[in-house]
User: Which sequence fits this backbone?
């Protein structure tokens, strides 16, 4: 009921894949039924008999042999759909499957506290399953064996503390009513004991205290470098990428249709390092940055993604600084130092070398107005409160230096390939992450890159793309309609 803010992205995650979509609505007043019909669902408007009975009503209306049951705040990931397709194509002896569920709490995806992997039974054969007739958290009764999927459902469960308290009150009242009807009573000492045990189990035994810490582990980082027919700049960028103080990372060059010279540069760089360097390529059909970045994401093995343009040269501690700022529930938008045409030319023709650049060198460049900043090259600041951006703000969003957790990027279906030509596909990406509860940090005085000069891209579609971002912010849409799932299934 009243799930218009959530259910659109839920249906988008399956609408081009499922044979049918069935929605049962119980008195919504926010336009939920109309939105679901617009997205191709068969909608039944009924009373609310409780969670279990309502699910059984929906099950009775299904026509397909297999049923995937989703709540409005859940999303089927492309990887999960691929696993389901495999068993539908090849057959299975099981009557149902469990899948892990990755849930967010107040904008942060939880990794402990019993919230992960949180296996739930959601795919089953229609004629071999039904739900228990209870009003809260019904169980699935399965006639047959249960298999396991590895890929998760994404669950945007509780966006803020207010909803957490509202859900706690609703579920506790419903649970108390069920126990009362069964003739069970509880004492004050039992209530205190249950509460104390729940805290010990969740916070200590299930390692919930780790969810409160910043993600500082030595996770693998995937650096995705976008490029198009600028092999001299790419060679300089890759040389710096492969000379980092941090060593636990891979480099993926996302190539928007470059020719053989670019392939040669990548091969030379790969041959000079033990780090993993890979190359994804698509035909040259105009500016399609979103599509090639999605291919890079699909190739990535890292838990954390850093997006870098092939004309943005990182400093030696670039990855280490991004790692230090990485925090569950947050993305980082990095900063850049602009180099003019003359300094860019000197660097690319090797008349000047970055490996020999010192304070005197950069002071001379700044005084000659060949670069627009000096201090961020030598002053590095730690994570602090002023990095955190309140709300959504356009300023500072640039995909030439941007980092986010892989699970968050998959949860919004990556970059939206509906954006054509230059402009605002990065703002759309950040806006949908923001709608999904991921907040933004600014990476100034930590993650600066040297942005080589280049001619400006034509901005014919900038106005249209800007309007698309405004629509995303207004609708609170999360899912890219033409996004990462296409790259994952190709």
Assistant:
């Amino acid at each position: 009921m009243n799930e218009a803010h959530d259910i659109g992205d839920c249906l988008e995650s399956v609408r081009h894949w499922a044979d049918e979509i069935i929605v049962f609505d119980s008195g919504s007043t926010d336009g939920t039924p109309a939105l679901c019909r617009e997205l191709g669902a068969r909608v039944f408007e009924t009373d609310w008999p409780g969670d279990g009975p309502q699910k059984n009503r929906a099950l009775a209306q299904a026509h397909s042999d297999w049923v995937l049951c989703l709540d409005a705040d859940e999303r089927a990931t492309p990887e999960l759909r691929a696993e389901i397709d495999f068993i539908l194509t090849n057959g299975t002896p099981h009557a149902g499957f469990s899948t892990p569920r990755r849930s967010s709490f107040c904008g942060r995806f939880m990794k402990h506290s019993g919230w992960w992997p949180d296996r739930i039974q959601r795919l089953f054969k229609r004629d071999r399953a039904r739900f228990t007739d209870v009003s809260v958290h019904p169980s699935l009764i399965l006639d047959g064996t249960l298999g396991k999927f590895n890929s998760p459902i994404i669950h945007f469960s509780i966006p803020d503390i207010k909803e957490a308290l509202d859900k706690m009150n609703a579920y506790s009242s419903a649970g108390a009513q069920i126990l009362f009807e069964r003739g069970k009573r509880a004492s004050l000492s039992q209530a205190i004991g249950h509460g104390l045990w729940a805290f010990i189990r969740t916070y200590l035994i299930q390692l919930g205290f780790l969810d409160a810490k910043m993600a500082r582990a030595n996770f693998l980082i995937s650096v995705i470098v976008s490029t198009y027919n600028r092999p001299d700049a790419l060679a300089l960028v890759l040389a710096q990428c492969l000379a980092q103080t941090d060593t636990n990372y891979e480099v993926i060059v996302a190539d928007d249709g470059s020719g053989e010279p670019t392939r040669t540069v990548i091969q030379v760089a790969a041959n000079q390092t033990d780090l993993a360097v890979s190359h994804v390529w698509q035909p040259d059909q105009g500016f399609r940055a979103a599509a090639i970045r999605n291919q890079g994401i699909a190739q990535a093995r890292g838990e954390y993604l850093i997006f870098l343009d092939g004309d943005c040269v990182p400093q030696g501690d670039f990855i280490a600084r991004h790692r230090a700022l990485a925090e569950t529930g947050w993305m980082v938008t990095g900063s850049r130092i602009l180099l003019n045409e003359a300094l860019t030319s000197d660097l690319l023709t090797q008349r000047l070398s970055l490996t020999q650049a010192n304070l005197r060198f950069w002071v001379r460049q700044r005084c000659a107005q060949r670069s627009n900043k000096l201090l961020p090259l030598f002053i590095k600041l730690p994570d602090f409160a002023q990095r955190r951006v309140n709300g959504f703000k356009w300023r500072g969003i640039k995909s030439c230096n941007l980092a986010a957790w892989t699970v968050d990027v998959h949860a919004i279906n990556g970059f939206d390939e509906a954006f054509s030509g230059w402009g605002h596909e990065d703002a759309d990406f950040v806006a949908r992450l923001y709608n999904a509860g991921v907040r933004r940090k600014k990476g100034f005085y930590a993650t600066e890159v040297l942005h080589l000069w280049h001619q400006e891209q034509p901005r014919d579609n900038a106005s249209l793309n800007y309007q698309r971002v405004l629509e995303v912010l207004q609708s609170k849409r999360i899912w890219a309609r033409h996004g990462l799932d296409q790259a994952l299934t190709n």
User: Anything to note?
Assistant: The chain has two domains: 4-158, 221-489. The chain has a mean pLDDT of 89.
